[in-house]
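User: Quick sanity check before I run a bigger batch. Here is a single chain. Can you write out its predicted 3D structure?
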Amino acid sequence: MLRVDNLRKRYRTGDEALKGVSFSVPAGEVVGLIGPSGAGKSTLIRCINRLVEPTDGDVFLNNLNVTKLGRGDLKRARRRIGMIFQEYALVERLSVMENVLSGRLGYVSFWQSFSRRFPQADVDKAFALLERVGLTDHADKRADALSGGQRQRVGIARALEQDPELLLIDEPTASLDPKTSRQIMRLITEICRESNLPAIINIHDVPLAQAFVDRIIGLQDGEVVFDGPPSDLTEEVLTRIYGEEDWTSMSGDSDEPDNNHPASPKNEPAAELV
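Assistant: Done. Predicted structure follows.
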C-alpha cells in the first residue's frame, strides 16, 4: 500500500508544484493521474520515489517512510518501486534479455553487474516475464531493433524483474498509436491485478484512462481536485480539472472496434502483439 500525506514541492524559484497532496493506493489498485500540463503530475510521481526531493510531507510504502530515508536506505527502497518511462529508458545496444535483467542491478554485486552474470533464478524470472509480455522470441534482439510497443513491454518486464511493491508509470502510451496504447494499458492493468500490485499511471489520454484504470486522481495547479471512480468523471469535473471545453465530443482515441463496455477492458479478446 502507498500513502502520500500532505506532499509539497516548492522550487528555488518560489514556484509551488505540489500543494499538500494526500491520497492512498491499496494493493492491486490502478490509479490514473490526470491533469493539464504543469499541474504537477510528473513531479508527484518523481517525489514518491525521490527522484525529485519533496519540500515537505511524507510518502509511506507499506510501513516504510520513504521521505525520511538516508542515501543507502533510499537506494534499497527504490528496489521496491518499479518505474516505467514514457521514452522506455532502455539501453539500445543491449539485448532485450539484458535490459530486463537490469531490473536486478540493485540486488547484485558490482562485478556481477559489470560482467552481466546474474543468478540463474533472476534469468529464469526474466524469461517468465518475457513470456508474460509476449516477447519470448525477441530475447536476443537488440533493444533498438524493436517497435515502440515492444520497447514498452520490455520496460514493463524490467520493472517487474525488481519484484516491486509499487509501480510508477509515466505516460506509457504517449509515443504509441491508439491500438498499441490500448494493448499496453490492458497489459499493465492485468499484471497489476494478477500480482496485487498498486500502480499510479500519469496519463494525458482521459478516455484511455477511463477505459482501464480503477480510479482517477485529477490534479490542477498542484492540488487534488478530483479523486474517484472513472464513472464520476463528468463534464463538470473535467472542466474543474482542465478548464472550459466542449467535453460532450470527447471520445476514445482507439481506431479498433470495441464491443465491450469500456469499464471492462479485461474482457476484450487478446489483440495481436505490437
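The radius of gyration is 19 Å.

User: Great, the batch can go ahead then.
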